[in-house]
């Protein structure tokens, strides 16, 4: 790369096409058949028509997904308060659980697997659609027995077990509001969310095992609940099999004592299409977490559409997306697979335990067709070489999905060649909790280059703009959305002004997402990290991903993070934190080699102030590097909200970097 092309005012990756879709796969894809049914000649034409007639597009999507309403809507969208506050499916009544479970019961789908679960110890459980329906009904009856119902917020602080999905569905079935919480949260994060939601009940567990170590969840929940007087009921699953679980007799009950005895039949509450179904908090990588409000006709349908149209998930196929129910990809997995009539896989364990082939064993054993990972995970797994992958039959895998952080070309190619045999696509997926899924996504219709997105998901009128809001191509700019979509958050919980400030106040009537993006000359898209992570070196804007891709390409480096720190002359300077593959390789010669690599690609003006080695990087549970925490730890500043931090010890790794 030339020096000029490295700045955030130009395009960073120059790659060749490495994957071209098979014409037969294209013809049989859900998206192509959708376009054929509507007489649309190309994907570009679909994007244009969807942008020009938002109502037509989303009505066509609901029809394509077979969504059923109790009372038909009068109007697909009311844009009177648009684009910030559109109302969808106006006058319609529906409950998403009817579309996830109820409608399948008198069809052949009832005997198909809806959920397959595996624990870290190798134990497994499977639920058909009929069995999941009955289990959800029993849980819903238990909730109603305790006086819980429509509009009540109920927390979900659980490991990834079948009971988590059952409780999730039961809350929606009674018309409640699901409040998913990351299973690794400490008391402070739980307090913030349960207090904010004014939750009346909480599902939790005695604990779970990770790398054969017991994690005690109930004690953490109890500590938080001392500050959450609105929570009157706590339902505890005995997942870890503990005999010493602390219980409060006036408030707590074991799942096994109150759910199995309930009736297998329960009515599904008739809710308005725009009634809230979920309050889910962002991961907080850029500050205090924000509570996104989602409705029955919003998040679930956007998530299902992304799976169906972009990822081409078909009824009967199997998706495993590594996540926690507290991050949006957990609810996304449940809503999407069950809407389509597919099968979800849950795994409660570490992806490299007891050996580095555990993830690939899961793919083989559960006949996974669509696997969702993060670039961060691939960077970790590729250190073990191809042998763990080659031990398993992955021929049934149709695609790998990817979200969480930007790719570097080397790791992308390793996954493409080693996992997918250079024959199947990596479906990059980027959006967020407030989006209900993707702004950009790969698909089965367009060629791919390393690290690239095919483009916007259908229905997302996305663009890349410069600092004045003008569209740019071949340059790095801000990712924006010009038209509303059905999955957009209905504002923030108790925070309308914060919602408007976060997304709508930079450019008039345009959603600014906060990501750097670029479109290359062939029309392929790239995400280059958070724009609020931008490093401004003497007036030259630099995206962290540009530096990190260079560092990560070195064979002795597992992963890295680049941050900007104050500099008296330049305004900001670059500091790189690199995690070596082996600590004994982290010497001055490696530091010099990395520095030379960066200077060669980016030029001396963008030379890092320092390259430091560390044992780990602070990340969220969904594998996003928390650069603001890295920056604060390095500068010895307050860390801010760290509730989404997966491992607090990683902060010390930055403080102890050498």
Automatic annotation (TrEMBL):
Domain Acetyl-coenzyme A synthetase N-terminal: from-to ranges: 44-99
Cited Pfam families: ACAS_N, AMP-binding, AMP-binding_C
Keyword Acetylation attached: yes
UniProt KW keywords: Acetylation, ATP-binding, Ligase, Nucleotide-binding
SUPFAM superfamilies per UniProt: Acetyl-CoA synthetase-like
A biological process term (GO) from this entry: acetyl-CoA biosynthetic process
GO molecular function annotations of the record: acetate-CoA ligase activity; ATP binding
Entry EC no(s): 6.2.1.1
Family matches, as InterPro entries: ACAS_N (IPR032387), AMP-bd_C (IPR025110), AMP-bd_C_sf (IPR045851), AMP-binding_CS (IPR020845), AMP-dep_synth/lig_dom (IPR000873), ANL_N_sf (IPR042099)
Domain AMP-binding enzyme C-terminal: 546-624
Similarity comment: family membership: Belongs to the ATP-dependent AMP-binding enzyme family.
Protein name, entry field: acetate--CoA ligase
Organism: Longimonas halophila
